[in-house]
Amino acid sequence: MPFPTVNDPYSRDVLCFYAGSKWFCYVNIEVFDRCCLKSTPEDAEELRARYDGIRPAWHMNKRMWNDVYFNQDVPDDVIFGLVRNSYDLIVAKLTKREREKLLHP
C-alpha cells in the first residue's frame, strides 16, 4: 500500500500488486469497486469499445492502463485473463535479473 499519507482517502486504501519493481494491478481494498490493469494500447481501445465496465484508468497512462469495474458487464474469466495479461506485459519489461528473481527468489 504505497500511498498511506496522501490526502485522497481512496488512494490511501489502494493495494498494489508488483512483479519485481513494477506494479501490474491495483485495487482499493475498502471500496473494491475496480482494479487497474495494463494492456497494449490496441487492446485497451478494443476492450473499452466492447465493455462499459472498462474505462481509461484514473491517474495512469490512459493509452495502456484500464480501470476494470467489478459487477458490471465484464465477465470474471475476462478479468482473470486481463490480470494475467497485465502481469505478463510488466514481466516482459523487467530486467533479466528481476525476471530471474521472480523464478528463483
Structure, explained:
- The chain is an alpha+beta fold and 105 residues long.
- The chain has a domain of 67 residues: Alpha-Beta Complex (Aspartate Aminotransferase, domain 1), CATH 3.90.1150.30.
- The protein is 38% helix and 25% strand.
- It contains four helices and five strands.
- The model has no long low-confidence stretch (mean pLDDT 94).
In summary, what is this structure?
By secondary structure, the chain is of the alpha+beta class. It has four helices and five strands; from the N terminus they run H-E-E-E-H-E-E-H-H.
Order of helices and strands: HEEEHEEHH
Total of DSSP H or I helical runs spanning 4+ residues: 4
Which radius of gyration do the C-alpha atoms yield?
Answer: 14 Å
CATH hierarchy: architecture of the domain at 33-99: Alpha-Beta Complex
Shape descriptor reads globular
Return residue spans where pLDDT drops below 50 for at least 5 consecutive residues: none
Q: For the report, how would you describe the main beta sheet?
A: 5 strands, antiparallel
Span between termini: 22 Å
* Average pLDDT score: 94
CATH class of the domain at 33-99: Alpha Beta
Structural class label: alpha+beta
CATH fold naming of the domain at 33-99 = Aspartate Aminotransferase, domain 1
Strand order across the biggest sheet? 1-2-3-5-4
By DSSP, the count of extended strands is 5
Task: Work out the strand percent.
Answer: 15-25%
Approximate helicity band: 25-40%
